[in-house]
């Protein structure tokens, strides 16, 4: 299955993907507005079938500098130097990087946000089955999640040797909340594109577990030297399997507790203890 | 006290009467009821000239510049001491943060920057800019032009530049009105800064327009100024402090109550963070982020704007 996916979705060219800026205007129409007509005008921070799709948080000028800066990340890393080169490429001055209030973190954030918004353009399991590419038809939900995770992780491949720097920036105290929220949005995006329509507590648990799986896999990928990241995909499979095991053990524990509590209540009732 | 310059002795002898007495006289001329704590009169038409505020007082627009000049001529020599006393030295942290966040100086493969520090007579920001560009970006070519409407403040800055051995090719001082910036060509400045100065400008929108004019496309406007303190209880304490303690300290330390009374009143009159961010936007600059960054619960704020490319 790996091969099919790779042939279907191998990126046309790294440069083109990185240099295509996503602005709020283009992104709003990109992934799902064509499929659902939003009933409510204002935006939500999560995917909803009633609200318009969340757009890019960056202005046009910021996107211009940041998309140009991303091209310098492979050689200069996530650094102020990359930002300066990017500003110059976008015909701005060196001082114009002041437009980015959080500096290098904005560059990391831009990569996270644009790749998240691009994911829906690449794979969208909410389309009818016959519109999906060959290898992606009739998949189970866990298989869809796996495909989407792999596709998103592949977008890190061109800069994976610099991605640890991004982790360092994201883990600074002031940036943690924005990074976590970006991770939450990504796992929401993945579940949404997989066609998840849960509306009970599993909405939260699914997103929480996927966030954990994704973050650990992304960290693993920075250390992966195997050909075509095969070790990473194996790692991802093991984590997803763990989640399944944990999920079933949690539900076993829940039914055990449920049974015990009910049995205890019935014992009390049979002894004529005023219970309820 | 004995070492006070002669000019200021003369001023402060006359000042306490002067500052308070001018206003009723102006008002009497135009027969409009004006007093302390009053907003500008509604029937401006009766007056031949528009009025503006000077602290809580209302004065004719043409008079404000000279009255502000009097205040700053009077505080020029004790400016830093008083800033330290009033803000417990925190103004230094604000200014350091301001300059560090702007990160001036030549980048690898780039050009040296040309920086304009408006209302920077004492050179406070300019010296920090030069230090930062030299120490952080190893740049000895970036230049700073300090423009100030007040010759006394400029003299103070020039004196300090010589004392601290700054390269005279990299720092220059020029008397200039922030509203017009007459001698500065269009599209010539990388970074325009104004620190604790813009609230003293008579027509702030005009100053912002001039900033837009002199900045290169992509150039950055940055303003450090007092703003509104946000949690209400803290604001109450802050108001109490600024209206009772600061004028008193001005009297004790600098021997000049009225100037410091004006300072706190002008701080109170300055627009809020969001209003000023909107003014920056109206002048054609693009706000950075939400438009401002609050320092110390909003006692001061930094506003940044970028001149768009076209």
Automatic annotation (TrEMBL), chain A:
GO BP of this protein: ubiquinone biosynthetic process
Domain COQ9 C-terminal as annotated: residue spans: 177-247
Superkingdom: Eukaryota
Similarity field: Belongs to the COQ9 family.
Compartments it resides in: Mitochondrion
Protein name: Ubiquinone biosynthesis protein
Molecular function terms, GO-annotated: lipid binding
PANTHER family: UBIQUINONE BIOSYNTHESIS PROTEIN COQ9, MITOCHONDRIAL (PTHR21427)
Pathway involvement of the protein, from the record: Cofactor biosynthesis; ubiquinone biosynthesis
Entry keywords, A to Z: Lipid-binding, Mitochondrion, Transit peptide, Ubiquinone, Ubiquinone biosynthesis
Species annotation: Choiromyces venosus 120613-1
Main location (coarse class): mitochondrion
Any GO CC annotation of this UniProt entry: mitochondrial inner membrane
Biological function: Membrane-associated protein that warps the membrane surface to access and bind aromatic isoprenes with high specificity, including ubiquinone (CoQ) isoprene intermediates and presents them directly to Coq7, therefore facilitating the Coq7-mediated hydroxylase step. Participates in the biosynthesis of coenzyme Q, also named ubiquinone, an essential lipid-soluble electron transporter for aerobic cellular respiration.
Pfam families: COQ9 (PF08511)
TrEMBL record, chain B:
Listed Pfam families: Ubie_methyltran (PF01209)
Keyword Metal-binding among UniProt keywords: no
Reaction catalyzed: a 2-methoxy-6-(all-trans-polyprenyl)benzene-1,4-diol + S-adenosyl-L-methionine = a 5-methoxy-2-methyl-3-(all-trans-polyprenyl)benzene-1,4-diol + S-adenosyl-L-homocysteine + H(+)
Annotated PROSITE patterns: SAM_MT_UBIE (PS51608), UBIE_1 (PS01183), UBIE_2 (PS01184)
GO biological process, one term: methylation
Protein family per UniProt: Belongs to the class I-like SAM-binding methyltransferase superfamily. MenG/UbiE family.
Annotated residues for binding of S-adenosyl-L-methionine: 122, 148, 177-178, 195
Subcellular location: Mitochondrion inner membrane
GO cellular component terms listed in the entry, alphabetical order: extrinsic component of mitochondrial inner membrane
SUBUNIT field: Component of a multi-subunit COQ enzyme complex, composed of at least COQ3, COQ4, COQ5, COQ6, COQ7 and COQ9.
Main location: mitochondrion
Membrane topology: Peripheral membrane protein
The UniProt record lists the keyword Disulfide bond: no
Keywords from the UniProt entry: Membrane, Methyltransferase, Mitochondrion, Mitochondrion inner membrane, S-adenosyl-L-methionine, Transferase, Ubiquinone biosynthesis
Domain of life (superkingdom): Eukaryota
Function noted in UniProt: Methyltransferase required for the conversion of 2-polyprenyl-6-methoxy-1,4-benzoquinol (DDMQH2) to 2-polyprenyl-3-methyl-6-methoxy-1,4-benzoquinol (DMQH2).
InterPro entries in UniProt: SAM-dependent_MTases_sf, UbiE/COQ5_MeTrFase, UbiE/COQ5_MeTrFase_CS
CDD domains: AdoMet_MTases
Full protein name: 2-methoxy-6-polyprenyl-1,4-benzoquinol methylase, mitochondrial
Recorded GO MF terms: 2-methoxy-6-polyprenyl-1,4-benzoquinol methyltransferase activity
Pathway the protein contributes to: Cofactor biosynthesis; ubiquinone biosynthesis
EC number(s) given by UniProt: 2.1.1.201
């Amino acid at each position: 299955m790996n091969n099919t996916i790779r042939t279907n979705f191998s990126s046309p060219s790294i440069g083109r993907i990185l240099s295509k800026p996503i602005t709020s205007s283009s992104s709003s129409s990109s992934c799902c507005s064509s499929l659902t007509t939003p009933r409510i005008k204002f935006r939500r921070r999560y995917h909803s079938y009633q609200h318009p799709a969340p757009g890019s948080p960056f202005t046009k000028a910021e996107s211009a500098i940041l998309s140009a800066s991303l091209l310098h990340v492979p050689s200069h890393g996530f650094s102020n130097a990359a930002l300066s080169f990017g500003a110059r490429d976008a015909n701005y001055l060196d001082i114009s990087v002041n437009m980015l209030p959080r500096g290098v973190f904005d560059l990391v954030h831009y990569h996270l946000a644009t790749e998240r918004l691009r994911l829906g353009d690449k794979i969208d399991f909410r389309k009818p089955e016959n519109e999906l590419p060959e290898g992606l038809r009739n998949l189970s939900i866990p298989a869809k999640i796996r495909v989407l995770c792999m596709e998103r992780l592949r977008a890190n491949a061109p800069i994976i040797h610099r991605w640890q720097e991004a982790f360092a920036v994201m883990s600074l105290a002031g940036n943690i909340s924005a990074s976590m929220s970006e991770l939450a949005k990504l796992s929401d995006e993945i579940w949404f594109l997989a066609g998840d329509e849960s509306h009970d507590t599993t909405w939260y648990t699914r997103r929480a577990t996927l966030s954990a799986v994704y973050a650990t896999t992304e960290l693993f990928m920075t250390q992966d030297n195997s050909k075509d990241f095969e070790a990473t995909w194996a790692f991802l499979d093991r984590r997803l399997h763990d989640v399944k095991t944990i999920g079933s053990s949690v539900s076993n524990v829940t039914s055990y507790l449920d049974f015990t509590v009910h049995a205890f209540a019935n014992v009390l009732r049979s002894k004529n203890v005023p219970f309820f | 006290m004995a070492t006070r310059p002669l000019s200021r002795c003369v001023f402060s002898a006359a000042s306490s009467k002067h500052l308070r007495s001018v206003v009723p006289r102006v008002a009497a001329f135009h027969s409009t009821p004006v007093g302390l704590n009053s907003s500008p009169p509604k029937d401006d038409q009766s007056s031949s000239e528009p009025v503006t505020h000077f602290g809580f007082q209302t004065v004719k627009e043409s008079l404000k510049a000279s009255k502000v000049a009097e205040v700053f001529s009077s505080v020029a020599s004790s400016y830093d001491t008083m800033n330290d006393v009033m803000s417990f030295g925190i103004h230094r942290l604000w200014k350091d943060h301001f300059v560090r966040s702007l990160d001036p100086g030549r980048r690898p493969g780039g050009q040296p920057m040309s920086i304009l520090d408006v209302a920077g007579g004492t050179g406070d920001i300019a010296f920090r800019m030069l230090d930062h560009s030299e120490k952080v970006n190893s740049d000895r070519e970036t230049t700073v032009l300090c423009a100030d409407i007040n010759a006394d403040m400029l003299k103070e800055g020039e004196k300090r530049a010589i004392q601290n051995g700054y390269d005279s090719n990299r720092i220059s001082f020029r008397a200039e009105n922030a509203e017009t910036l007459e001698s500065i060509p269009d599209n010539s400045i990388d970074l325009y800064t104004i620190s604790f100065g813009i609230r003293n400008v008579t027509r702030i929108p005009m100053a912002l327009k001039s900033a837009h004019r002199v900045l290169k496309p992509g150039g950055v406007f940055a303003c450090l100024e007092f703003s509104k303190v946000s949690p209400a209880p803290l604001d109450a304490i802050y108001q109490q402090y600024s209206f009772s303690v600061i004028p008193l300290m001005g009297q004790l330390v600098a021997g000049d109550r009225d100037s410091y009374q004006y300072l706190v009143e002008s701080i109170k009159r300055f627009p809020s963070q969001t209003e000023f961010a909107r003014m920056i936007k109206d002048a054609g600059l693009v706000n950075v982020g939400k438009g401002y960054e609050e320092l110390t619960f909003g006692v001061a704020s930094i506003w940044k704007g970028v001149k768009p490319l076209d």
